[in-house]
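Researcher: Here's my situation. A collaborator sent me these components and asked whether they could plausibly form a single complex. I don't have experimental data yet, so a predicted model of the whole assembly would be a useful starting point for our discussion.
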Amino acid sequence: MSRNICIYQEFLTAAHKEQINRTAEKLGFTPHYFTLEQFDEARECLQSCEVLYAHAPKLMREAPKTLRWYCCSSAGVDPYCKDPTIFANPDCLLTNTNAYGVTIAEHVIMVTLMLLRRMPEYEEQVRNHGWGNQRPIRSIRNNTFTVLGTGNIGSNVAQRLRGMGAAKIIGLSRSGRPAADFDEVLPISRLDEILPETKNLIMALPGTAETVGLLSPERIALLPADAYVINVGRGTAIHQEALMDALNGGRLAGAALDVMDPEPLPADHPLWNTKNLILTPHVSGNMTLGYTCDRNVEMFCEDLENYAAGRPLKQLVDRTRGY
Amino acid sequence: MSRNICIYQEFLTAAHKEQINRTAEKLGFTPHYFTLEQFDEARECLQSCEVLYAHAPKLMREAPKTLRWYCCSSAGVDPYCKDPTIFANPDCLLTNTNAYGVTIAEHVIMVTLMLLRRMPEYEEQVRNHGWGNQRPIRSIRNNTFTVLGTGNIGSNVAQRLRGMGAAKIIGLSRSGRPAADFDEVLPISRLDEILPETKNLIMALPGTAETVGLLSPERIALLPADAYVINVGRGTAIHQEALMDALNGGRLAGAALDVMDPEPLPADHPLWNTKNLILTPHVSGNMTLGYTCDRNVEMFCEDLENYAAGRPLKQLVDRTRGY
């Protein structure tokens, strides 16, 4: 029986396909490509495949027991980890693709500067053709940052904050293990101790049982009134009502959310009109940057080599842990 | 006769005044402080001063022949260089204060990312409570930049582009002398040769006879249609009508102007409604960042030491050159 790979992706260029074909052929695999519109065709093909490269919970539900590896092209795999019934084969390997650090980190630097420099207020002034009214601003240089999550995203953020002259970058992670690019990494259990001294809180956490509601009303109250909050991980990590209250009541200086709960955000949701809030519709880490797509394909090909050789997969997800 | 310094500034904190007092006393000077509202008092005091620390062409016009040093707290001194009659004493020393590189560079990084990541389009979508519509974006990482001006502002910009992973940063200056932080510095006479390969043009030039109209209609036409233009120097450096035409006609991808001509921009000026243009009301380098103010006072005190000792002033401006 030939070894088949089902590839259900929209972003692949001719060069990406060539790269996958070269790798697959060398290793004795045959890739089959489908665009997102070709769901039925992809499902049919999937029945005789041992590998799926996609980000589509609905297609994954249709996978046969013989599927041995699901390479998810997204970094967040919470939809697959929350619901084990999605895997017909309970031993199916799951990998994620941490290819989004660069683009998400650039988003974080952009919104951090927009908050520190009060850009939304200037933008409103400019929309009204107004001059004048210079406002006190702050700088990344010599400022301090608390980054929740020291993985691919958190590290890329820390590197860029460093490149902009930040004075101190503290990381928090489950393990608290030291990580390059951070001045210090603490276990997330020490969060309550860190929040009262946090001026800039950057959240880049996966969506797991442990991160849901992490920034609770009590913890939001621990932040200084001149603090900024930025979230590019999962919307569920923040108690949204408490955040909106704090922003509208002036108990926080501002926030930037690229992720929220739910997504898409309903048109009548109060988040849209919250004060001092920069909202973006979950675009910080999408496939719109060429580099992200290239890295995605590279990581798939690298783990295809590992898979074919029977080596451990580099991007393997611990499904009970959720990342 | 006591040696008097007239200080006509709004931004000074108690700590700044203490720092100036300490330096002045040590060197045998007496500082006299005035806020911007105290123009008449400042003018009267100025008549018996040999040093003025201010940024006020109107007050400078009232200076006596005995004024020996005007320390301008701004970086741009074009109002003083264009009109020599402003100096009653033709030998009066003029210094400027290049303390704005950090804050202007952070502004440049912010608007560069906003252009590359198409933030104005997302902001409009969010104002309409809209989701969806992911757009192709670009990155600072691996991108190339052309920076006009390799002084304090240009260098700070280059450092930060480097810290964000830029692939190549070319500087252009009058002399073309090599400068740290740039991969290459070319004389500005080679501008026409560089523009067709420029994806991101950052302009940080002083307002001099040589820079007026530098980015002419012909040169705007040399830029690729997917190029971005950012100006934080002087508005007069760009042929504004040609820039507006190129932006409205889609012959440039976008621009961000913090400086324009005239300032303040009249409420009915067509720049306000130009397509793909981020406008800010000359705020990139104001005194709203604590660091900028601290650096300003430091630089004044440093040159006061030089002045008292009869040494050359570090920030001395060549009034014929204009910077």
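Model: Some features of this prediction you could bring to your collaborator: Chain B has a mean pLDDT of 96. The longest strand of chain B covers residues 3-8.
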